[in-house]
Design brief:
The protein has 226 residues and is mostly helical. It has helices spanning 2-11, 26-31, 38-70, 73-86, 90-107, 119-124, 131-141, 146-168, 173-184, 187-196, 207-216.
């Protein structure tokens, strides 16, 4: 039960890493008129959930958790570098570095994490830890089963993006809950696929996201940092 409680804490929107300040290109596609309705948001976020976060970030989180469990520092560093290199724009890279830094800082001061032997030192040894790197360290240290960790990681991403859509489209709170209910149904299947996906098949080919993020960097007025 303690592992579940820790997982709820990691997946909570109250986690102070600044996730609420990012829309990952959504703000620009709304400004451009490409996303206007609840159905448009469902299509945009559903594609990102399946073809980017679910097919690249999620299997990498799983690989990182396993590497943390085995104490493979060089493998964690390699995966962290690969994730940073996969960010197509400056703001997407800055997003994961900032969130990673904030989570590392939190964990290295958090009761329940600092009490675990050597975990603080192992985490601090990673240069420019990306958000998935720090998140996976906590999941491994707290012995959260991967079958629970991946759905929670995907849910946390989805919840943040839906809340961004509620603000920027804008949508009502009920529309936001409908989106979470509909898209959330896809998470178990996406997580299961991520668990079985070999590294050679990891893929985040989502050119629409890259274009939206690059355009967002020079967007005249904006609410979000990405």
């Amino acid at each position: 039960m303690l592992a579940l409680v820790r997982l709820l804490q990691l997946a909570s929107p109250a986690l102070p890493v600044g996730a609420y300040t990012y829309s990952q290109g959504l703000e620009w596609v709304v400004e451009a008129g490409e996303v206007r309705t609840e159905n448009d948001v469902a299509a945009w976020l559903g594609d990102l959930l399946e073809f980017s976060v679910g097919s690249f970030e999620a299997p990498m989180v799983l690989a990182m958790i396993e590497a943390w469990q085995r104490g493979e520092t060089s493998e964690i560093a390699r995966l962290n570098d690969d994730f940073l290199a996969s960010r197509e724009t400056a703001e997407l890279r800055a997003e994961t570095v900032q969130m990673g830094y904030s989570l590392v800082r939190l964990l290295t001061e958090l009761h329940g994490y600092t009490d675990l032997p050597q975990w603080r030192e192992r985490l601090l040894a990673i240069d420019d830890a990306a958000f998935p790197t720090a998140w996976s360290a906590a999941a491994a240290a707290w012995q959260i089963p991967c079958g629970m960790a991946l759905p929670a990681y995907l849910w946390a991403w989805l919840e943040n993006q839906v809340m961004a859509a509620v603000k920027v489209v804008p949508l009502g709170q009920q529309a936001g809950q409908r989106l979470l209910a509909t898209l959330g149904e896809r998470i178990p299947t996406i997580a299961a696929r991520a668990c079985a996906l070999p590294e050679a098949e990891w893929n985040n080919f989502t050119p629409g996201l890259a274009l939206a993020s690059s355009r967002h960097e020079t967007q005249y007025t904006r609410l979000f940092r990405s």
